[in-house]
Amino acid sequence: MHTPAFHNHDHAHCTGDVMARAEEITRANGARLTPVRRRVLEILLEEHRAMGAYDVLQRLVAEGFGNQPPVAYRALEFLVDQGLAHRVRRLNAFTACMTPGESHAPAFLICRQCNAVAEAPAEGVRAALEAAAAELGFVVERANLEALGLCPKCVAQA
Amino acid sequence: MHTPAFHNHDHAHCTGDVMARAEEITRANGARLTPVRRRVLEILLEEHRAMGAYDVLQRLVAEGFGNQPPVAYRALEFLVDQGLAHRVRRLNAFTACMTPGESHAPAFLICRQCNAVAEAPAEGVRAALEAAAAELGFVVERANLEALGLCPKCVAQA
DNA sequence: CTTGACCTGTTATGATATTACATACATAAG
DNA sequence: CTTATGTATGTAATATCATAACAGGTCAAG
Q1: Cβ–Cβ contacts within 10 Å for residue A76, how many?
Q2: Which of A32, A137, B109, B129 could form a disulfide with B152 if both were Cys (CB 3.0 to 4.6 A apart)?
Q3: How many inter-chain contacts (A to B, CB under 8 Å) are there?
């Protein structure tokens, strides 16, 4: 499961918003939100969880798109490049970005008990990371911030 | 290449130190630093860079250890569990930890130009991450902090 | 010296990701 | 309108990374 912050929300509404933002962003970047790409983003939003490339591919096949891995990987890579999706490396998976265009470098909180994944706002974390990098003269362009631990529910149980 | 902080240092010396610390740490944890495990750690220290499991395996084979992937993966997993090595997910690779036993949750700085990897001290980053997680009631146990960007040399060139 | 826990080796397979090339489509220049 | 150009898609083949399952070996405690 992928929740924006371990609580419920108006799902259909947020999906519509994000797709609209996606249109704007890609247009602004001079990129094309083609059918496969759009569909992959919709799938990520619908499923609302971290999905493997092959999971996405299965859905695409069922809808008549190409059935080879590159079809999924290319669309996913495009979405990540546009800031519309994120790659969660710990899970070999991808999720739709819930706040495209805004504060980037979110942190992902992954529950080792129930596998829930939440996207946490991480401006402060990014700032700290850039500061630490700057100490060494390193310029950060992108970051993967992933934490493994226990979500609120599983903390309560334990 | 894996450098501790994008600059030179006394390599043989740091390797010896780390091995000694490794002995202490595993003994303290009631774990056994067996020949394969010790050798894998030495290999990581010698090569001084992020190595894939299969790279490590090749070295092991050449030295008469088992030649199947689990041999490498198990030793590497052990070292990671003991805090003697880190997994860099972005590279599907592992590196020896340069400061075992100390401040953990280092951040990795990966140069997209020359592929150098540096381990940066990241207490501040970890603190910020834990704070952000705490906001959502999430308890962080482990974290992968990986930044992609440009190292000092490559910044200078550009 | 036997038991139980853990470590190692091996087989087999699964899961993830990319390279290379062919085809199709969009856009803009002629 | 046609052609040239860049970009996107489809497909085959393969590379790379990782784990499950089981057999045999080692070691220390009782």
Answers
A1: 24
A2: A137
A3: 147
CATH 3.40.640.10, applies to B107-157: no
* Record: contact A144-B146, CB cut-off 8 A: yes
State phi, psi for A102 to the nearest 5 degrees. Answer: -90, -160
Encode A70-131 in three state secondary structure.
HHHHHHHHHHHHCCCEEEEHHHCEEEECCCCCCCCCCEEEEECCCCCEEEECCHHHHHHHHH
Asked if A120 reaches chain B (Cβ–Cβ under 8 Å), the answer is yes
Name the CATH topology of B2-96: Arc Repressor Mutant, subunit A (1.10.10)
Footprint of strand D on the protein (CB under 7 A): A 31-32, 34-37, 65-71, 74-75, 78; B 52-54, 68-70, 73, 77, 92
* A91: nearest nucleotide, CA–C1' criterion: C16
Contact between B86 and B97 (Cβ < 8 Å): yes
CA A44 and chain centroid, separation: 8
Residue-level pLDDT, tens digit, chain A, 158 residues: 666 677 777 777 778 899 999 999 999 999 999 999 999 999 999 999 999 999 999 999 999 999 999 999 999 999 999 999 999 999 999 999 988 887 677 999 999 989 899 999 999 999 999 999 999 999 999 999 999 999 999 999 98
DSSP 3-state assignment of B97?
coil
> What is d(CA A155, CA B134) in angstroms, rounded to the nearest whole number?
12
CB of B37 nearer than 7 A to strand C: yes
